[in-house]
Design a protein that fits this description.
Strands 7, 8, 9, 10, 11, 12, 13, 14 and 15 form a nine-stranded mixed sheet that branches. A seven-stranded antiparallel sheet has the order 2-1-6-5-3-4-16. The longest helix has 16 residues. It is globular. The protein folds into two domains: 114 residues, D-amino Acid Aminotransferase, Chain A, domain 1; 162 residues, D-amino Acid Aminotransferase, Chain A, domain 2, CATH 3.20.10. The chain is α+β, with helices and mostly antiparallel strands. It has eight helices and 16 strands. Bound molecules: 4'-deoxy-4'-aminopyridoxal-5'-phosphate (PMP). 4'-deoxy-4'-aminopyridoxal-5'-phosphate binds next to helix 6 and strand 13.
Length: 289
């Protein structure tokens, strides 16, 4: 495996970060998870835009121009001779001293890992996921914007632990007001009477790239889609439910807190979106080779 680290490529054992890196000491940094399919990177420009927006929001200066960053992502995949897989692109505040002052970190650290992806078990796409509501609330905008894809994922990790202890596939996170925000690593959607719904970003969700693709697919397939504030009631009473995310793609949800959603099987609109999503990943994207 060849890993990009600040402009050079290193083997898995040699790619090392200092213990003084503030990405490690404080979770001070941003990242992206990106997929590539059949020699094409899916939605690369959107991921790069979100990375630079996340960095801007935390006053982190990325030491590479966008074009150079795109090329670094593509070259890392090429160096590993991969055709399908996952890219983890990380920018940390870089090395400083033990204090949290970012002004003492002269240069951001950039690393890129390209590898094969371990998918959710196939069975979950056929039968649907079980989701539980987590007691851990999504972090409020006033503390740290959930729109920043930062290295500080403890909020999501704690919720994920709850979901795992409950034996569920994903955990639903509510915001401080009790409205649905998102799942620990995916955006959430419902279908009711042929219309699609998802909570607004302002409820505390990451502006998912796959979420955006879902909007585009809905428009193309002729489904109305809207973003009302939502509560668990809307999920309990939905006909269908599904999640979107770069790793998960589009995945059906069949229970929330052990209550059956709709017929308890992946619904027809969810299945159409899953099918269309696969067609898109097979036909569009930035050429790698
Ligand atoms: N919400 C959170 C908290 C996430 O970490 C992610 C990414 N895994 C998503 C939603 C989905 O975003 P995307 O479709 O861009 O992967």
């Amino acid at each position: 495996m060849k890993i990009y680290l600040d402009g050079k490529y290193y083997g898995k054992e040699e790619a090392k970060i200092s213990v003084f890196d503030h990405g490690l000491l404080y979770g001070d940094g941003v990242f992206e998870g990106i997929r590539f399919y059949h020699d094409r990177v899916f939605r690369l420009a959107e991921h790069i835009d979100r990375l630079y927006d996340s960095a801007k929001a935390i006053c982190l200066n990325i030491p590479l121009e966008r074009a150079a960053m795109i090329e670094a992502v593509l070259e890392t995949i090429r160096q590993n001779e991969l055709h399908d897989g996952y890219v983890r692109l990380v920018v940390t505040r870089g090395c400083g001293d033990l204090g949290l002052n970012p002004a003492l970190c002269p240069r951001a650290t950039v690393f890129i890992i390209a590898s094969k992806i371990t998918l959710y078990p196939e069975e979950m796409y056929h039968n649907g996921l079980s989701v539980v509501t987590c007691a851990t609330r999504r972090i409020p905008h006033g503390a740290l914007s959930p729109m920043v894809k930062s290295l500080n994922y403890l909020n999501n990790v704690l919720a994920k632990i709850e979901a795992q202890l409950a034996g569920a596939g994903e955990g639903l996170m509510l915001n401080e007001q009790g409205f649905v925000a998102e799942c620990t690593g995916d955006n959430i959607f419902t279908v009711k009477k042929g219309e699609i719904f998802t909570p607004p970003i302002s409820s505390g969700a990451l502006a998912g790239i796959t979420r955006q693709v879902a909007f585009e697919m809905a428009a193309e397939l002729g489904f109305r889609i809207s973003e009302p504030e939502m509560t668990r009631y809307d999920i309990f009473t939905a006909d269908e439910c599904f999640l979107t995310g770069t790793a998960a793609e589009v995945i059906p949800v069949v229970t929330l807190d052990s209550r059956v959603i709709g017929d308890g099987v992946p619904g027809p609109i969810t299945r159409r979106l899953m099918e269309r999503f696969h067609q898109l990943t097979e036909t569009i994207g930035t050429a790698i080779y």
